[in-house]
């Protein structure tokens, strides 16, 4: 039994005959930062989509903490401990920064719906509805405790990006700069306290100083022991932050290892770095 946090074996995904991911195996150990690099179309995002449950594999297996997740729904995978961001940055445009962060927490909370579960027992839908109405109006100690703990998590994540998001915490996401939208998205993912943070090109579309800021934040997360799976084009950032680098080409892994070793690998230079 492997002690990897994430274990991926012989993963395959086709799109109408095209093998986007054709037999990929790798692992991420607790506390590691692992990056996947490779030319456009090499299967990086498809791999992330498979790991996070956005896509189902045609073959192979994915385990998180020893539990198979390759057939699980993405919401269950999130609850089990994987949070992600997207290549193009996805936030809810009309929600504030704070509410965007809170949405992430709610997407995996189940404990706040006890009466729905009771409804399965009683088969009388009006009883749980009345009970929920009562709770909505008067609250319960548990609900108030949960409210306080959610508020604390949101504030912690805003504090992480204090200089950038602090002054904007109540502003709607549509009014934010692109870089602040992406920071909000990372904060939302971190609010889930994920075992594994999956980042798809977190610096795409960012200028040099914004990229340097993301690098500093990644190094901070790494120092905190956060396990990260990263897809990123900016090689200087990848080489600085990663413990290991996986190189994909044509849906397969063509090299894997410590950043400096990968950089010198002739197959990598041919397929990617040399282009
Ligand atoms: P990368 O992230 O490395 O740029 P992708 O994983 O996005 O690569 O894509 C790998 C291959 O799979 C590409 O040839 C791409 O066109 C194809 N592909 C990805 N998603 C789809 C899809 N939903 N339908 C059809 N082909 C897809």
UniProtKB/TrEMBL annotation:
Q: Which residues cross the membrane?
A: 122-143
Q: What are the UniProt keywords, alphabetically?
A: ATP-binding, Membrane, Nucleotide-binding, Transmembrane, Transmembrane helix, Transport
For this protein's source organism, the top of the classification is:
Bacteria, Bacillati, Actinomycetota, Actinomycetes, Micrococcales
* CC annotations in GO: plasma membrane
Q: Where is the ABC transporter domain?
A: 6-275
Q: What is this protein called?
A: ABC transporter ATP-binding protein
Q: Which GO biological process categories is it annotated with? A: D-alanine transmembrane transport; L-alanine transport; L-isoleucine import across plasma membrane; L-valine import across plasma membrane
Q: Key word Transcription present in the record?
A: no
Q: Which residues form the signal peptide?
A: none
Q: Which GO terms describe its molecular function?
A: ATP binding; ATP hydrolysis activity; L-isoleucine transmembrane transporter activity; L-phenylalanine transmembrane transporter activity; L-valine transmembrane transporter activity
Tell me the InterPro entries matching this sequence. AAA+_ATPase, ABC_AA/LPS_Transport, ABC_transporter-like_ATP-bd, BCA_ABC_TP_C, P-loop_NTPase
* SMART domains named in the record: AAA (SM00382)
């Amino acid at each position: 039994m492997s002690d990897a946090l994430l274990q991926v074996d012989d993963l395959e995904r086709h799109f109408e005959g095209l093998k986007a991911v054709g037999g990929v195996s790798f692992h991420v150990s607790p506390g590691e930062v692992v990056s996947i690099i490779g030319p456009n179309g090499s299967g990086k995002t498809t791999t992330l989509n498979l790991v996070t449950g956005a896509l189902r594999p045609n073959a192979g297996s994915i385990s998180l903490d020893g539990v198979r997740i390759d057939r699980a729904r993405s919401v269950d995978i999130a609850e089990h401990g994987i949070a992600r961001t997207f290549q193009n940055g996805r936030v809810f445009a009309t929600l504030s920064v704070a509410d965007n962060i809170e949405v992430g927490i709610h997407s995996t909370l189940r404990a706040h719906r006890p009466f729905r579960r009771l409804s399965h027992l009683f088969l009388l839908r009006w009883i749980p509805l009345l009970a929920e109405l009562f709770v909505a109006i008067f609250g319960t100690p548990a609900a108030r405790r949960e409210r306080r703990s959610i508020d604390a998590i949101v504030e912690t994540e805003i504090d992480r990006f204090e200089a950038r998001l602090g002054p904007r915490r109540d502003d709607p996401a549509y009014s934010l700069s692109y870089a602040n939208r992406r920071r909000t998205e990372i904060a939302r993912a971190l609010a889930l306290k994920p075992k594994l943070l999956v980042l798809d090109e977190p610096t795409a579309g960012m200028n040099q100083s914004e990229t340097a800021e993301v690098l500093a934040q990644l190094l901070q997360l790494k120092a905190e022991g956060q396990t990260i799976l990263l897809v990123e084009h900016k090689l200087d950032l990848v080489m600085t932050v990663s413990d290991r680098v996986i190189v994909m080409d044509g849906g397969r892994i063509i090299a894997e290892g410590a950043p400096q070793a990968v950089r010198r690998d002739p197959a990598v230079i041919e397929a990617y770095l040399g282009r």
